[in-house]
Amino acid sequence: MYDVIVVGTRVAGAPLAMLLARRGYRVLAVDRASFPSDTPSTHFIHQAGLSLLNSWGLLDTVVATGCPPIRHLNFTYADIEIRGMADPSADGIDAVYCPRRTVLDKILVDAAGDAGVELIEGFAVSDLIFDGDKVVGIRGRVGEGAEREFRARLVVGADGSNSTVAKLVGAQEYDAYPAAGFVYYSYYTGVDWGMQHRTGFGDQQFAAWPTNDDQYLVAIIRERSRFRDFRDDPDAKMQEIIDAIDPEIGARFRDTAQRVEPFRPMLYPHNYRRRSYGDGWALVGDAGYHKDPFTGWGITDAFKYGQLLADLAHQGLSGERPMAEALAEYERERDAQSLSTYDLTRSISELTFTPFYDSVFRATSRSEHYTTKFFGLIAGLYPPDKFFGEQQLTDLYEEVDFPVADRHVVNPEERRPSDIEQRTETVTA
What we know:
- The strands form three sheets. Strands 1, 2, 5, 6, 7, 8, 17 and 18 form an eight-stranded mixed β-sheet that branches. Strands 3, 4, 10, 11, 12, 13, 14 and 15 form an eight-stranded mixed β-sheet that branches. A three-stranded antiparallel β-sheet has the order 9-16-19.
- The chain has helices spanning about 15-20, 45-55, 60-65, 100-115, 165-170, 225-230, 235-245, 245-255, 300-315, 325-350, 355-365, 370-380, 385-390, 390-400, 415-429; strands at about 1-5, 25-30, 75, 80-85, 120, 125-130, 135-140, 150-155, 175, 180-190, 195-200, 205-210, 215-225, 260, 265, 270-275, 275-280, 280-285, 290.
- Helix 1 runs parallel beside helix 9, helix 9 packs antiparallel against helix 10 (about 325-350) and helix 10 crosses helix 15 (about 415-429).
- It is about 40% helix and about 25% strand.
- The longest helix is centred in the last third of the chain and has 26 residues, at about 325-350.
- It is an alpha+beta fold.
């Protein structure tokens, strides 16, 4: 009998299992993959995520793999240019990193094992075990082996957007929005552009950043309706998009870049939240909450809310408070803390700005001070109300002498945590 079973051991499940094992709980973690293995990802870890890695004692291990630090970021949205970097985080982190998932996930799985987690790789969960309405375990097998059963006080699905655990408990979605685009990416040598996140006119974007083995990840995002056309000749289409957004970089890409791996298409799922707890179960990572990869917050959020779930599950497991109460707080806090990131990502992932975001970011690009604040917002180093607050935006417009007619200090699409709570209640009523 385990205290916790975690299904899925990548960037949400492995840290959760590790953190609970470090508290002395008996934890089993299973994954259908064997490690090291790859998975579709943009690799980006913001400073807030790196701070968590640092607190877990794992950042130095990631840095030691040779993944290059990135200390200057280049963002463009049509004719708006925002270039710079956030101030260092409270623990001195002054860079971002984009490690290969073959590297990062293996580090996390090994750390879980070192903490005492029992790991079974290549294990596919086929069913959950119920005692009445309560989840009390899992059932599955490794390859063609015999079916096995394991029981626990809490079963956590950290098994991605197509979560088996979510399906088996009937976790309902809420606050869902259609996906706006698709991603195509691969790895290249002969690229040395620094970190680029460039959105051009005509609903198209390319991005690039260094990763392990002296390679760059180069990716494009286009609106979803263009997917079939793009996949007919992705090399030519990627070159065409880079040329259109930045002809100088396009020429360098044509002359020196060499693709060294196959393309990875990501026709990713829509944006959603799922009911993420019930009697004997919880969901974390993309199993419970997914958003467009445009802002690169997937890994950092997996770390952040894995830590949150570990802290609150501990309260339930230790008897400090009822487990149902602790898990309800986990979902409520996750939704409240992620609301602004979710809404910002959903809005700008459509590759066109609303008048509010156009005015805010256009004014930001004219202020060195607010540019640094922008990257602090993106890095997760302080809450959005410190950037998007009415007084803060009023001060920004005054500083850069922005045209009065174009000033927007209130986002008409902005929502409050209570909006999410109301929608959650509707789903579960």
